[in-house]
Design goal:
mainly beta; binds MU-OXO-diiron; binds calcium ion; six-stranded mixed beta sheet
């Protein structure tokens, strides 16, 4: 999600509200201990850097400090030729009404806001939009996307790259670009009428759409496809795990606390080895309003999740469940990871409370050597934490049904990034350490409803907005996207968050035992961490860190989502580079090992105002799907006078968030 003005003057990142009251772990002696002499001499990472062993490794594989950039070049050159395994000619940075991809590739628009998904969906007409139409059409602001090959199970055999089920999150509404006459900023949300609020609700959730590559090589949605589905803010869901039925989840519509309507602010996500979707509820706080936020019995808990009396959306004026004064427990029913089966359009989505309640950004997995499954998830707000969930039992590859409730039983951990290069995983288990009745946790349900406070008490490391965390299929290292944190002060710098006023963010690697050639054990209680890259412009932005051959267009700002191709190369999508660095958001690729490690190169650049999200390759790497979210969400841009009309460029249509497919001209793997 991009910049939002929540203060009437001070523009703030929407995930950047910051509700952690005690972002501790100042620089102090730990940094001195951690700084190698060589690093200190170079001013590595702006004053805080890698530990001795890590620093040696870093310095031998990447240029740890800003190096003089190579001579400027135009699109068509291949920076780092002979160093990077990536062959595409790099793009130039641009800010334009249209998007662009590296030469030799082409962009197809697959699904746009308003495209029909379900039978009976009318053709998109933004001036005649209704909630009924929107509930059958592709929703707004696509984010996480995933591709589930057809027939089911083909992914395991490395095929199924021409036909599948696309699953797409719809994170939020850019109200001022959806409706005419509501102004040109996010405050438009407060000006909607009841009918518009219902349209917003139906534009949330997910779309599940069968897609197929036609004979001409172009991707198209399958009209009437039997997997097609819309999930909205109204779709009935089940609650499971230790917080199911908890008194704080009970409402007048659901006195048992086990059945919730809808899923909200689904940002990134993930999948399971048994082929289900995990969709992550991020900024759920925006949907609630009411004085109770400041006066009610749960006000401290609300505050820790940045739930305010004004809210952001106006839904609470029209539907009682979004009004805290009438339903003070409703927010406790959001902020979870939701699992559903994309191959069964009738399946009831399940809120898996064992994975904790926070602003979940992504939920990607790795399988431990003993078959237990480990899910990584970031809490995307400044000074929040990195989590992982480890299932109690191994998954069963032979019997899909046996895995149905695997996510209800396991242990949630939060990360402490130590100065000596270790990651310690601290269990969030009721009765252990400070997580006791004396601290207000009557049971595991309380620990999960107030995951953030539990993690505070354990001494987790406050991070620079942890977003997507994904595991490299080749090396087994996990990559943590840390978007930025302009509020971190010198005193709050920590080794894994080494820059004060971190405008451009960075990417950390979590290296579990057995990574880099062995059998990575993501379930282990400890791992190591390293800095992979640090954003910003080399030579200009303090502490920017890439491979020394990174070009003047290869540097990036605000890493948000990532994906890996089957060769283990990382593809990083950005969110917020326009505000932070004056360039449109894009998709950058780099080797993660070998001579080209950390040599990022610009592959795709989004239209103005948009972020890039949800990168996902087909199993054979010949198609890369991307979400282009909130095109035209620029200052002063409105439905009536948008900054772009991408992707249709028709005078009668506003910009439309869309899923695109990028393929190589003439075929072959992308990149
Ligand atoms: Fe919705 Fe954290 O990006
Ligand atoms: Ca984001
Ligand atoms: Ca995101």
């Amino acid at each position: 999600m991009a910049a939002e003005d929540t203060s009437g003057g001070d523009p703030e990142e929407v995930e950047d509200i910051g509700s952690n009251p005690d972002p501790r772990r100042p620089i102090g002696a730990v940094i001195a201990q951690r700084l190698g002499r060589r690093a200190a001499l170079r001013g590595l990472l702006g004053g805080a850097g890698a530990a001795t062993g890590l620093a040696e490794r870093l310095l031998s594989s990447t240029a740890a400090v800003a190096q003089p950039a190579p001579a400027p070049h135009s699109s068509g050159n291949a920076p780092g030729a002979g160093i990077s395994t990536l062959r595409f000619p790099e793009l130039r940075h641009q800010s334009a009404e249209g998007d662009a991809v590296a030469e030799g590739h082409e962009i197809q628009t697959v699904l746009r806001w308003g495209d029909p998904v379900l039978p009976g969906a009318p053709a998109f007409d933004p001036l005649k939009q209704t909630a009924e139409a929107q509930a059958r059409q592709f929703g707004y602001n696509c984010d996480y996307l995933d591709f589930f090959p057809l027939p089911q199970g083909e992914r395991d055999r490395g095929r199924g790259s021409d036909h599948g089920v696309l699953v797409v999150n719809h994170e939020y509404a850019t109200t001022q670009l959806m409706f005419p006459g509501l102004g040109d900023d996010r405050r438009a949300r407060g000006r909607v009428d009841a009918a518009q609020a219902r349209i917003e609700m139906m534009a949330h959730g997910l779309s599940v759409v069968e897609v197929k590559r036609e004979d001409d090589g172009r991707w198209a949605p399958v009209r009437g496809g039997r997997f097609n589905r819309r999930i909205t803010a109204d779709t009935p869901m089940r609650v499971s795990g230790p917080a199911a039925g908890h008194p704080r989840l009970r409402t007048s519509a659901d006195p048992e606390g086990v059945r919730v309507l809808g899923t909200l602010n689904n940002c990134a996500g993930g999948n399971t080895p048994w082929g289900t979707v995990l969709t992550a509820e991020e900024n759920f706080n925006f949907y609630f309003l009411g004085e109770t936020a400041e006066t009610g019995a749960q006000r401290e808990a609300y505050k820790r999740y940045a739930i305010t009396k004004a809210g952001s959306y106006a839904w609470g004026r029209f539907e009682p469940r979004f009004d805290l004064d009438r339903e003070p427990n409703e927010p406790n029913r959001f902020g979870w990871v939701v699992e559903f089966d994309p191959y069964n359009p009738d399946s009831v989505p399940v809120k898996r409370t064992a994975l904790g309640r926070f602003k979940h950004e992504g939920c990607n997995h790795a399988v431990a050597p003993d078959g237990r499954v480990v899910f990584y998830s970031g809490d995307d707000e400044r000074f929040e934490y990195v989590y992982k969930f480890v299932t109690a039992r191994p998954w069963n590859p032979q019997d899909r049904a046996a895995n149905r409730d695997l996510l209800d039983d396991g242990t949630l951990f939060v990360a402490r990034f130590e100065a000596d290069g270790r990651v310690q995983w601290l269990p969030l288990v009721h009765g252990q350490g400070p997580l006791t009745a004396a601290n207000g946790f009557a049971g595991q349900g309380d620990v999960l409803v107030e995951t953030r406070r539990a993690a505070d008490l354990l001494g987790a490391t406050p991070m620079d907005r942890p977003e997507d965390i994904e595991v490299n299929p080749v090396s087994g290292r996990a990559y943590v996207m840390l978007t930025n944190n302009v509020r971190r002060t010198e005193a709050q710098v920590s080794p894994a968050n080494p820059r004060p006023r971190n405008v451009h963010g960075h990417v950390l690697e979590i290296v579990p035992p057995g990574a880099d050639g062995g059998a990575p054990d993501h379930a282990a209680a400890e791992a190591r961490w390293e800095v992979f890259i640090a954003g910003g412009k080399p030579g200009v932005d303090h502490g920017a860190q890439y491979h020394r051959a990174t070009s003047e267009f290869g540097w990036l700002s605000c890493p948000d989502n990532c994906a890996f191709d089957s060769r283990g190369r990382i593809w990083i999508a950005t969110d917020g580079a326009d505000d932070a660095a004056g360039v449109s958001d894009g998709l950058y690729a780099a080797d993660t090992a070998g001579r080209g490690r950390g040599l990022t190169r610009l592959f795709y650049q989004a239209p103005t105002g948009a972020e890039v999200a949800g990168p996902r390759f087909t199993p054979d790497d010949t198609t890369l799907f991307l979400s282009v979210q909130h095109p035209g969400e620029d200052d002063g841009s409105s439905f009536d006078r948008p900054s772009t009309r991408w992707p249709d460029f028709r005078p009668d249509l506003p910009p439309r968030p869309s899923v695109i497919a990028i393929t190589r001209r003439g075929g072959g793997p992308v990149g």
